[in-house]
Amino acid sequence: MEGPIVNTKLAALPIISVEPFLQPGHHGRLSAAAALHAACTEYGFFYLDISSHIDPSEPEELTRLAREFFALPEEEKDKISIANEDGVRGYQRLKENVTNGKADNHEAIDFFKPVEKPDKTKTLWGENQWPSIPGFREKYEVWIEKMKNLGMVVMEAMATGLGVTPEEWAELQSKVDDSFWVMRIIGYPPLPNDHDGFSCGAHKDYGCLTFLYADPTPGALQVYLNDPGLVVKEDGRTPVQRVEDGGRWINADPIPGCVVCNIGEMWEVWTNGLYKSTLHRVVHRGSNYRVSIPFFFEANFDALVEPLPAARRIQDDDRAVGKATEPIKVYEPVVYGDFLLKKLSGNYATSPGKGRYDTN
Ligand SMILES: O=C(O)CCC(=O)C(=O)O
Ligand SMILES: [Fe+2]
């Protein structure tokens, strides 16, 4: 009997350990940086093994606190509604978030880097709103610090993988050293069978690097792997979910000790398209209430993001040896804060725009 045609190369995302980047002079640093470069060009997604760095009980406690909050009556949760603040910092009810014009089947609390001189009449310029659950804020603030540090470590590792010079790294570092980070705490009830949308619709992350900690629920986060030359048959097996345009959705199930890491559109600009920001979505049809905590390590608010010389060198070399024949399109520079504000202007069901992750 003819078996399913599945490209095993694309069956699972790579796992990269952060350890070589935490220890100065670690012998595995260059090979890990090369693996990171390959993961970013081929997938835009990978698992980052942080088990040598972070005790697993820590994020588990964060999901416990999140569950405690989401289990509160709606009027309690609404006390920290985004409507009380700057329209983006705070709690959003189920279906208040919109992606690709459809309401997402999740509720969430969003936090952004605090700003000087807050003014809640200006989108994004208000203050974060914390649940009054004892220990909540303190524990999440410790996590934020850890994720900010991790962001800087991974940025430097990626710069090494890309072949930047020390001067170029100093320049790139100055674009992210005051990261305008974002953290979401997301609660996903199971998707009703008659729901015509998603738990979170297909989107690309718009910033720099995402570190996703999720509870152990399998089969929820899906990543779109595009391989135009690939012929895949729907075979009913995990991880193949669906076939579209020669690509397919695979599950990115949680792996103990790892966060799922993916690159956002700013890295696509920095690398002039060498690293792709990959589509992903959440389809949670299980019976449990799923919790995930994505941390978005972003560029500085006023950072001008433009293609890096190191990426252009790789592209020029590829052309010189005939590996690339198409003319290379040069990405337009963007100021991260402007880009972010544009994205946020259409995020929510109550706002007149489209959705959080819509691309234009
Ligand atoms: O909950 C997840 O697994 C992913 C959420 C996500 O992609 C996002 O918030 O950007
Ligand atoms: Fe995302």
Automatic annotation (TrEMBL):
<comment type="similarity">
    <text>Belongs to the iron/ascorbate-dependent oxidoreductase family.</text>
</comment>
<dbReference type="InterPro" id="IPR027443">
    <property type="entry name" value="IPNS-like_sf"/>
</dbReference>
<dbReference type="InterPro" id="IPR044861">
    <property type="entry name" value="IPNS-like_FE2OG_OXY"/>
</dbReference>
<dbReference type="InterPro" id="IPR026992">
    <property type="entry name" value="DIOX_N"/>
</dbReference>
<dbReference type="Pfam" id="PF14226">
    <property type="entry name" value="DIOX_N"/>
</dbReference>
<dbReference type="GO" id="GO:0046872">
    <property type="term" value="F:metal ion binding"/>
</dbReference>
<protein>
    <submittedName>
        <fullName>Clavaminate synthase-like protein</fullName>
    </submittedName>
</protein>
<keyword id="KW-0408">Iron</keyword>
<dbReference type="InterPro" id="IPR050231">
    <property type="entry name" value="Iron_ascorbate_oxido_reductase"/>
</dbReference>
<feature type="domain" description="Fe2OG dioxygenase">
    <location>
        <begin position="179"/>
        <end position="299"/>
    </location>
</feature>
<dbReference type="GO" id="GO:0016491">
    <property type="term" value="F:oxidoreductase activity"/>
</dbReference>
<keyword id="KW-0560">Oxidoreductase</keyword>
<dbReference type="InterPro" id="IPR005123">
    <property type="entry name" value="Oxoglu/Fe-dep_dioxygenase_dom"/>
</dbReference>
<keyword id="KW-0479">Metal-binding</keyword>
<dbReference type="Pfam" id="PF03171">
    <property type="entry name" value="2OG-FeII_Oxy"/>
</dbReference>
